[in-house]
Amino acid sequence: xxxxxxxxxxxxxxxxxxxxxxxxxxxxxxxxxxxxxxxxxxxxxxxxxxxxxxxxxxxxxxxxxxxxxxxxxxxxxxxxxxxxxxxxxxxxxxxxxxxxxxxxxxxxxxxxxxxxxxxxxxxxxxxxxxxxxxxxxxxxxxxxxxxxxxxxxxxxxxxxxxxxxxxxxxxxxxxxxxxxxxxxxxxxxxxxxxxxxxxxxxxxxxxxxxxxxxxxxxxxxxxxxxxxxxxxxxxxxxxxxxxxxxxxxxxxxxxxxxxxxxxxxxxxxxxxxxxxxxxxxxxxxxxxxxxxxxxxxxxxxxxxxxxxxxxxxxxxxxxxxxxxxxxxxxxxxxxxxxxxxxxxxxxxxxxxxxxxxxxxxxxxxxxxxxxxxxxxxxxxx
Length: 381
What we know:
Elements: H1 3-10, H2 20-32, E1 37-39, E2 45-47, H3 52-60, E3 67-73, E4 78-84, E5 89-94, E6 106-110, E7 116-126, E8 133-140, E9 153-156, E10 162-165, E11 168-171, H4 177-193, E12 198-203, H5 211-217, E13 229-238, E14 250-252, H6 262-275, E15 281-283, H7 292-297, E16 302-309, E17 332-335, H8 336-349, H9 361-374
Parallel strand pairs: 3-12, 3-13, 13-16, 14-15
Antiparallel strand pairs: 1-2, 2-12, 4-5, 4-9, 5-8, 6-7, 6-9, 7-8, 10-11, 11-17, 14-16
Helix pairs in contact: 4-8, 6-8
């Protein structure tokens, strides 16, 4: 795992509909590694093929090996500039957020051309449901008034965009740049293998309703596919009982909205038992909803792998360095060992010959043994 590249990616500014700097960084990495990719009409990055035509050809080839579509999103909750006033920049927030200790919090700002600045939130109002930040005013530490307000975006700022301490990575945005890093690393492995079963899909605006993912599904790539497409959602998900930081990646059985595809999840479980024995976790991650639900809703088999995430959506649930208080702004954090485990699972899913058509065959044999052992006790009295 290239930790330096991970830290570079985590340092990229991003917000819903403002993923351009992440996209630029990704394109540079993909071109440097000579990995094929293209952008769909919604601006999502598609890795593993060079064009829509190549994508459709890959899906149209008859094969017993399904196309594994590894999905992660490039945005993180953040704000857009609305207008300048005498006090500073009026902002509109997009996605989840802390609910307390907001005024006085440090923020970062970035213009469309990459000009960065520091600021402080001096006014804040929550949504009508009191679930997240809705609007506010940011006082800038440097003058960005030459930039059009609607081109400025930003989010919570801490001592650094990303730093490591005690085997943990603290960052302004692990969700879901960690997943994007995993897709990139898996793309490199897939390209070297030349097996042709991989697609990476890096989506936009997930935090405001899976907008980029939905747009991609609406383009019709999967409706005429002859090969089975299987979506693998890669996420950083709120830590929960049975899904703890440092205990390994989570074989995700479902999210808050849906249960994933039983056959696909069973294949993932078998891969996990093989490549990460006793170093993975398994549960429904219902702290949020992920893009596997978009696949399930479109009748496409889906599974999920999650990295347990501290301070989900920068809310100070677990506290730690730079946390402004319970439910106040705080850096998200994840375990490096959990990330390595996710990469091992992704690599394992690329192997040929996995039991996609019938993952339950060995379980049926076990069930038959139970029947044989109990048959004599089933005799009518």
